[in-house]
Structures are given as structure tokens and as C-alpha cells.
Amino acid sequence: MGYDVISYSSRINLGSLFVSGGYIRGVFVKKGRNKILIVDPASHHYHDKLTASLTECELISIPDKPQACEFFFHNDVDLVLIDHNNESSCLELIQYVKSLKQFVPVIVVTSNGSEELATRVFRLGAKDYFRKPFALDEVNESIKRALGMSYLKCNRRRDNVGRGLHCIHKYYSAGIKLSHAAREAGMSVSCFERKFKEKTGKTFVRYVNELRVAKAKDILKEDGVSMNDVAFACGFTNQFHFTRTFKKIAQVPPMGYKKSLRK
């Protein structure tokens, strides 16, 4: 089986980070595995046991919240488990995760929770909330439900691909991935990919890129918007990727398209 190399800034203190695969400069993650980011200074108490019970997942523990934010920004993460304590609130981190990738589930664990805290984290979009010490099997089941939470609901519907399409149109600007759309449709990635092309006549990547370019054309009609702003607003990772993709689909670079609107 091949591996993807996840790299992150050398400013991260690798002594505070451990992965179920070991300590290394780049985190080697097996393709196809769900990646869970744990932001909890006390995660060493349950990391190994949780890893053993979630064999389909890769657990990445980064106790420091700024470093965790940097890792989340640069890498594909399927679920975030966050600790809340008196010294470090989970609320800002939940908001950060949801502002970047709204579809990524968040689970909160805490030693000093309250009804007010539970209400606030759920309002911010958290999927579950546990008081420490928690029952490991309950957290384990919660993670599994969050990572495949649409499966039972989607199986009751005829148009599962339609559920995936709805997810794409809702989150195309937030870094939507094939695995996210497939999960929403309640299908395996390979099954969804095949059914998606049968329904739309296009690959997932082509469809998403066309959607993003269409949105970019609308934004380019406005004055005073930089190309970099347009790129990020439409879900592109950088301006170079945006320009190359736009030209490939529209047969003209974005700046050329904008100039053509003035004629």
C-alpha cells in the first residue's frame, strides 16, 4: 500500500506530536484511512487504546492549539477531537475548524464542562460532547458515527448521488474532497466515483472545478476584487492553481475574462 507524506512547518515542535505510525518529520499516512486530529494535552492517556479500536483511522495528536491549527490548514483531516479546560477554551478552535471546513465533524472532551458549555459547543457545530473521564467505547462509537453518519440515512433514499451533489454545491468553496461527498452519499469512494460519473458525465474533479470556475466568473464581474481573493473565495488553494484551472476550463485566463467583460 502506498503512502502520502503530510508535511508541515518546521516551527512545529515534533516532541509534542505523535502519530500512530511513529515520530518523524513528515507524517506518513496510509492512503484511504480517515485522519483524526486530536488536540488534547492529556491525549497520551487514551491515544494508544483509541488507535487500537479505530484500525481504519490514523490518529494525529498535536496538543498545542496554534500548531494544530497550522496542521489542520495544510492537511486533509476527517475529524477533530478537542479538549476544553480552564486554561484553553475549545470554542475558538471549533470556530476555526468550521470556518475552514464546515463539513469536518468536531467532538469535544472536557474535565470541567457545564450545561452552558455543552450548549455553546453544539451551537457552534460540534457533533458530540464528553465529560472526562469518558468511556472509551462511547467515544469510539461517536467517532465512527461521525465519520459515517450519513450511511443509514442515505441508504433509505433512492438518490444517494444526489446527496453527494448537494454536499458538493454546499461546500465547494471549503475544500470539499471526494471522500467527503462519498461519505455524505453513504457510499464507498470507488462506488460513489463510478455512480457520480454515470449521473453527471464528469469526474468529481472536473465537476468541482467547473463549479468553482462558474462562481469565479460571477465574482470577476465585480470591481475591486483581487485574483487572490477570487481564488480563495472559490475554493482554490492558491492563485496559480486558480489561474491554470480557469484557463483550462474557460479557454481564457481569469484576467483576460475580466477584461472581456468591459468590451
What does this structure look like?
The radius of gyration is 20 Å and the shape is globular. Helix 10 (204-220) crosses helix 12 (239-250). The chain is 49% helix and 14% strand. With 263 residues, it is an alpha/beta fold. The chain has 13 helices and eight strands. A six-stranded mixed beta sheet has the order 2-5-4-6-7-8, sandwiched between helices. The chain has helices spanning 47-53, 65-74, 91-100, 115-123, 136-147, 151-155, 160-171, 178-185, 189-200, 204-220, 227-233, 239-250, 254-260, and strands at residues 3-6, 18-19, 27-30, 34-39, 57-61, 79-84, 106-110, 128-131. The chain folds into two domains: 3-147, Response regulator (Rossmann fold); 153-260, Orthogonal Bundle (Arc Repressor Mutant, subunit A), CATH 1.10.10.
> How much helical structure, as a percent, in the residues?
40-55%
Please state the overall shape, judged from the principal axes of the Cα atoms.
globular
**Number of alpha- plus pi-helical segments:** 13
**Fold-level CATH name of the largest domain:** Rossmann fold
Number of domains: 2
Mean pLDDT figure: 80
Q: How do the SSEs run, as a string of H and E?
A: EEEEHEHEHEHEHHHHHHHHH
Number of strands: 8
Order of strands in the sheet with most strands = 2-5-4-6-7-8
> CATH superfamily name of the largest domain?
Response regulator
List keywords for this structure.
alpha/beta, Rossmann fold, Arc Repressor Mutant, subunit A, 13 helices
Summarize the structure.
This protein is of the alpha/beta class and 263 residues long. Helices cover 49% and strands 14% of the residues.
